[in-house]
Every structure is written in structure tokens, then in C-alpha cells.
Design goal:
CATH topology of the largest domain: Double-stranded beta-helix
Strand order of the largest sheet: 1-2-3-17-7-19-4
Structural class: alpha+beta
Amino acid sequence: MTNLKITAAAGPIGAEITGADVSRPLDTEIFQAIDGAIDDYAVIVIRDQNLTAPQLADFSRRFGRPQVNVRQTANNDGTPEVGWISNVTKDGKQVGSHDAGRYWHSDLCYLERPSKLTVLNALEVPTKDGVTYGVTQFAGTVPAYDALTDEMKHRLEGVQGANSYRTMWNRKAIEFGVRPYLNEAELAKYPEDAIHPVVRIHPKTGRKCLFVCNGYTNALIGLTKEESEEILEFLFDHITGSDFKYEHQWRVGDVLIWDNCAVQHKAKFDYALPLRRLMQRCTIEGDKPY
């Protein structure tokens, strides 16, 4: 522990950790310090790591069971629980997902058991003339809930939202043209909408979190279409337009870990080839939201 240093960011979320090598098994004390920092800051970065896909999976497994993403073509062939996120093409084929992070979202919220944590490792970062592009933005869902009026908190009690991978797929296909548009039969191979509480309880901290996002939440159950759209639009703006933010400036070797209950995130697409971005990701299965 003598070399481990945790430095908090300026805002309510985010911290930097140095002095740890996660390519090797960590002793219990160091792992618990990292795990505790995630609870405290929701987003942490461990600098200067050099990981293979199996090493990333092994480290991620310390936090729980890794998930294999439903978009199988984006996964690592030898280590399928690790997926590629990039703008890179190899032999005429996209390497991993080229349009991940376009909307504010919580990872795999479209599943019955969404991701507890995401572990994202930067292998190549788009940089030009000393400027780094492709910032990942985070918004805290705990302080966002706390900042609601008592009237809105009461209004949201017991309300559930539908989170749709299928709707998101064709929305991205239309807006960005990177993935193919799918018909109903083709979409059927992906998960049906997951129904989750709009206000969920964090399973470790017990804090209340807003669990809706622009990327996947398409309706509030039991409300009229007009009421649903009005509340969702308000909540999307409230969460992401607040001061509860952290922006991560990437460096090669970063291992960024975030709590998908406590934050949602979005990437900035302010770069294009020949500037390359290549990252490997592992997500950890969480509890069914309650």
C-alpha cells in the first residue's frame, strides 16, 4: 500500500489511482482500496497499465462475473468476455463497436441484470499536435436524484422504465450509418425490453440513483405517451445538464472503472481517421435493480 495513491477529482465524482499494477494478481488490501474508491468516487482511473485481453478479464473478475456482450461480433475472439471499442478497420472489417457511447447511457441497462461495473482499457488514443480527443463524459445519478424537488421524488416513486436494446440499434443505424438497419425478425435475436425502476437503490451504498438514460429508456410504464415523454425529457436534461460531472482525458494505458448504477456516460466523437482509437472493455454483471 505504500505506493498506492488515490487523488480525487475536483467535482463530486472521479478519482485517479497510481502505484498499482493490475496485470498481476493484487493482494487483498490493494484490491479493497481500489474497490472502496469506486464506491467513494463512482469513476476511477488506474494509470500506466499494459494489459492483454486475458489479463483484463482476470482483473475484472475480481469484481464479479464478466458479461459476454450480446453484440458478439464486437467481442475478442480468444477472450469473448472482453469486447473491442474502436474506429479501426482490419482486413475490410470493423474492429469491435464503432458507434459505442454515442448517447448518454448506463452499460447493459437493457438486460434484466445490468452491468455493475465497466472496466475500459485504452490501447490507442486519438492524439494530434499534443491534443487528445475522444473524452468520455460522466454524470452522477446519485447527486442528480438528491437535487430533485420533493414533488418530483414523490412523482417518481414506484415508476418503472422500459430500456430497449432493439430501439437503440435502429436509432443508431439511422443516425450514424455505422451498423445495418434491422427488420423485426433480425432484431428478435436481441433482448426484449428490460423493465427497471426509475429510482433504484444502490446495492452497496444504499443511496438512491436515477436509472433512466437517453440511450435506452424509451417509455415509462403505466403513463400516457405524453406524460412519459415529458418526464423522461426532464430527467435526461437534469442528469446530464447538471454540475455532477467528470470528464476523462484519456492516456494510453489507462484502466477506467465506473459504477453503472452511480453514473451514466457518453463519449465525445470529435476525431476521425487517421486518428485511431482502440480500447478493450469488460463489464461485470450486477444485481437486478430494485
